[in-house]
Design brief:
By secondary structure, this protein is an alpha/beta fold. The protein has eleven helices and four strands, in the order E-H-E-H-E-H-E-H-H-H-H-H-H-H-H. Strand 1 (about 5-10), helix 1 (about 15-25) and strand 2 form a beta-alpha-beta unit. Helix 1 (about 15-25) runs parallel beside helix 2 (about 50-60) and helix 7 (about 145-150) runs antiparallel to helix 8 (about 155-160). The longest helix is centred in the C-terminal third of the chain and has 42 residues, at about 185-225. The chain is elongated.
């Protein structure tokens, strides 16, 4: 097959059962194997069993083996390679909590990273709900007012308020917001324009009614004046 196919597994409790599984999978011709170093019953709070990868690497020396589990910092990448012989690593929770784990110079604070990510998401017109989900995973202070505003936000301007980026949104960010990243945005604009049109129409109607009323009043006053004794003398 010309398209590379990879596979990801968890380990069994039994070492030999795990090795039998990886041998069968490797025999299908996969290009790489990722191993989550936990059993199916283990939770994320339980430490990943990196040592279980050593036997797999020895069993399949020609196949790239990717370690998954407990990669939270850049230095964990090299440590995983040194300790297990893994070709590479895969991370999920670590990157979701703070994408700066890929930074060789070290971690940046989660909040600073979240602020920069918000700007980048706006500049690339990223879908709002996707950005919101990511930021909720990254936000370090779940009891704070900013987290509460973020959690309730429905538009990028509200998100920017939560992230302390209101000035950025007004000066730069708003120009990048489109229908793709905020579905329904154009409908809101149309509804607003229609509302303004209806308001203008109502105002014009009111003005026409007022003018007609004024003309009618003037005509009535003219007719009334024509019936006065002075007017009758002029006619005579």
């Amino acid at each position: 097959m010309s398209i590379p196919v990879t596979c990801k597994i968890r380990v069994f409790d039994d070492v030999e059962q795990t090795l039998e599984l990886v041998r069968r999978i490797a025999g299908t011709g996969i290009s790489a194997l990722t191993v989550h170093c936990r059993t199916r019953a283990m939770r994320p709070s339980e430490k990943a069993m990196w040592h279980r990868l050593n036997d797999i690497v020895k069993e399949l020396p020609d196949l790239p083996i990717v370690l998954n589990g407990d990669i939270f910092e850049y230095k964990d990448v090299q440590r995983a390679r040194d300790d297990t012989g893994a070709t590479s690593v895969m991370t999920a929770r670590g990157a979701a909590a703070n994408p700066s784990i890929f930074r060789s110079a070290g971690l940046v604070s989660p909040m600073d990273t979240a602020v920069e990510l918000t700007k980048l998401a706006i500049q690339t017109s990223n879908v709002f709900l996707n950005t919101k989900y990511i930021l909720l995973q990254m936000h370090p202070e779940t009891k704070s007012k900013s987290f509460e505003i973020l959690n309730k936000s429905r538009r990028y301007n509200e998100m920017c308020e939560a992230m302390g980026l209101s000035d950025y949104y007004e000066s730069e960010g708003a120009q990048f917001i489109n229908e793709r990243c905020e579905p329904g945005k154009n409908k809101q604009k149309s509804a607003g324009a229609q509302s303004n049109t209806q308001a203008d129409s109502s105002a014009d109607s009111a003005a026409d009614t007022t003018a007609l009323s004024e003309k009618t009043t003037v005509s009535e006053q003219t007719c009334a004046a024509a019936d006065t004794p002075a007017a009758k003398r002029i006619k005579t």
